[in-house]
Specification:
Layout lengths: L2 H13 L4 H12 E3 L4 E3 L2 H5 L5 E2 L5 H13 L4 E4 L3 H10 L4 E3 L4 E4 L9 E8 L5 H13 L2 E6 L7 H5 L2 H6 L2 E6 L5 H6 L6 E5 L11 H8 L6 E3 L5 H21 L1
Length: about 260
């Protein structure tokens, strides 16, 4: 419920046009949506600046469609991650005008009309081509949340001259997301080249001793570069979400300054 809607409701209670019990019921119904298979948080946009995101992995295609439809009915932008091929096909039929990115495995159904111009500059960097699906999830997430995003691909530490070719782009970034598997060393390198936050996102790419991304994660957590922080393995969504929050808050501060 928006501040304007809440004001109208409270004025109705004050004037006697709305009973107290009826107002309580409307407040309860406005904050959550009970679907039987899920309880959607409809107040998250008011609290956190972005609606609840649906994690599709482990859910049936019917459940994912139901959640997306309920969010759309509540005039909430609907963003779904980890969308399977089966879920994607059903969502495409139900919402033909929505945007889907099969590399990122995302579904995006904006309901708020014209999107504002993107703010800030988030640079997503991958160590290898195999890291692209996770990087694309980060890129799409940040873009959906209103950030300006660019992508640099396949510049890992096996050839340091490749990342050095992009020093000017790195220098203009507000946040850099570095997506890397194998030894996970690239975030430390980038962290030593920039004056902005570096979000390290390990991937599960690598041979046996990479332990499904655990080796990369531990390297990133132990980074000697002070400006590096890490998210979970393959968590492109989390990296993109946090980066977008950074640049949106910066833009908000600049607007009100």
């Amino acid at each position: 419920m928006t501040a304007d809607e809440l004001r109208v409701l409270l004025e109705g209670v004050q004037s006697g046009a709305v009973a107290v019990d009826a107002a309580l019921s409307r407040l309860d119904q406005s904050s959550v949506a009970e679907l039987g298979f899920a309880t959607l948080d409809l107040d998250r946009r008011q609290r956190c600046g972005f609606p609840e995101v649906v994690f599709a992995e482990g859910k049936t295609a019917e459940w994912v469609e139901g959640a997306a439809r309920r969010l759309a009915d509540a005039d909430q932008d609907c963003f779904v991650t980890r969308v399977s091929a089966e879920q994607a096909a059903r969502l495409a039929t139900a919402f033909p005008r929505a945007d889907q990115d099969r590399l990122a495995r995302t579904f995006w159904l904006p309901t708020s009309g014209v999107r504002p111009a993107p703010v800030g500059n988030v640079l997503v960097v991958t160590a290898g081509t195999s890291d692209l699906p996770v990087a694309q999830e980060a890129l799409v997430t940040a873009r959906v949340m209103g950030a300006g995003v660019e992508l640099v691909v396949d510049v890992g530490v096996a050839g340091l001259h490749r990342i050095l070719r992009h020093r000017e782009r790195l220098a203009t970034a507000d946040v850099v997301i570095v997506v890397a598997g194998m030894d996970g060393a690239l975030p430390s390198v980038v962290g030593g080249l920039v004056d902005c936050p570096v979000i390290a996102c390990p991937t599960s790419i690598g041979y046996g001793a990479a332990f499904g991304g655990l080796a990369a994660l531990l390297t990133m957590l132990n980074s000697c570069s002070a400006g590096v922080c890490a998210v979970n393995i393959d968590a492109g969504f989390k990296a993109g979400y946090v980066a977008a929050r950074f640049v949106r808050r910066m833009a908000k501060k600049n607007t009100t300054a």
